[in-house]
Specification:
single chain; 337 residues; alpha/beta; Alpha-Beta Plaits; TIM Barrel; 8-stranded parallel beta barrel; 4-stranded antiparallel beta sheet; elongated
């Protein structure tokens, strides 16, 4: 249930709504806008509570039931677009934010060379995996804490904020002490213990779509993070379909659907969707044209020697060329890189 306060409603009037909600056993989330406040009332019994109980309170403009499973991620809770900040980078504004770097941190030289190359080309955030959950237990699993330390060192040397994946609830505190953005991968989108812990961290979260999950399930997972007070960036990375000519089928329609249904920023990972470096540029440009707020792209100094996902990684020269092409696409839809 969403209670929209009148413009200029007093703190006392908002407090009265909150007090009434809590007296009925409901949880409360406030969206404190510049003009007005929106109060989300959460609980399994909201369906049995008449809206008039809140509509008659002083300062209340309207009361609306949200029938969707997701609440805090919805446009009803926050009509305007949310912006997520990490360092001096704002995700969700006019500027399209490109996050780029190697899928996995392998060594200091590899990471530093990648960071310098993507920064020079125009990327704003450095990506790199320290913890790598893999399909096979015999595949490279990442450098773990040593990888986090390298990310922090390269961040200091280049000035680029860092996004890296967190895999287990117990590691959230460790990873968030090194990262500027936490990434929750496709396989963990519905790991609710991880979502709750990450929601309590000081780092905003990039939440990737589960490769077998609907948009509604995705936004409901985002509610776990939002309910703990954190900020969220949604990342479409392709879903599993019957099509096998690409690694995953990028759901490009997810971008406008999310823009209609949710206030959260949306980015796209063309690398995992494509599975092959030659397809990445076209998918990246399509994502920008569709309205994505950013891109998450894998770039390796020497893809042929990459320990993880070399086939879908761009070389520095390919990435530089793509960034130039993206600027043209961005300008055509009123954005910029």
């Amino acid at each position: 249930m969403i209670v929209e306060m009148k413009t200029g409603a007093s703190k006392e009037e908002v407090a009265a709504v909150v007090e009434k909600a809590r007296s009925l056993g409901l949880d409360v989330q406030l969206n404190l806008g510049t003009d007005k406040t929106v109060v989300a009332l959460l609980g399994s019994n909201t369906g049995q509570i008449p809206t008039d109980i809140f509509a008659v309170l002083p300062g209340v403009e309207s009361v609306t039931r949200i029938m969707k499973p997701y609440k805090l991620a919805s446009r009803e809770f926050k009509p305007g677009d949310s912006k997520v900040t990490c360092g001096d980078v704002e995700i969700g504004g006019k500027r399209i934010i490109v996050m780029a770097g190697p899928c996995a941190v392998e060594n200091e030289k590899q990471l530093f060379d990648a960071a310098v190359a993507v920064r020079k080309a125009g990327a704003r955030v450095l990506r790199g995996g320290a913890f790598k959950p893999r399909t096979s237990p015999f595949s490279f699993q990442g450098l773990r804490k040593a990888g986090l330390e390298l990310l922090a060192k390269v961040r200091k040397e280049t000035g680029m904020p860092v996004v890296t994946e967190v895999v287990e609830p117990k590691d959230v505190k460790l990873v968030s002490s090194y990262a500027d953005l936490l990434q929750i991968g496709s396989r963990n989108m519905q790991n609710y213990a991880l979502l709750t812990n990450a929601g309590r961290s000081s780092c905003p979260v990039v939440l990737k779509r589960g490769f077998s999950c609907t948009i509604t399930e995705w936004l409901t997972a985002a509610d776990y993070l939002l309910a703990e007070g954190n900020s969220v960036v949604l990342c479409e990375r392709g879903i599993r379909t019957f099509e096998d000519s690409v690694r995953f089928s990028l759901d490009i329609s997810a971008v406008p659907v999310l823009k209609k249904s949710s206030h959260l920023p949306v980015i796209v990972d063309p690398s995992h969707a494509a599975g092959h470096y030659s397809l990445v540029p076209a998918i990246a440009k399509a994502a920008v044209a569709a309205g994505a707020d950013g891109l998450l792209i894998e770039v390796h100094p020497n893809p042929k020697e990459a320990l993880v996902d070399g086939l879908q990684s761009l070389s520095p020269s390919d990435f530089t060329r793509l960034m130039k092409e993206l600027k043209v696409v961005a300008e055509s839809v009123g954005r910029y890189i």
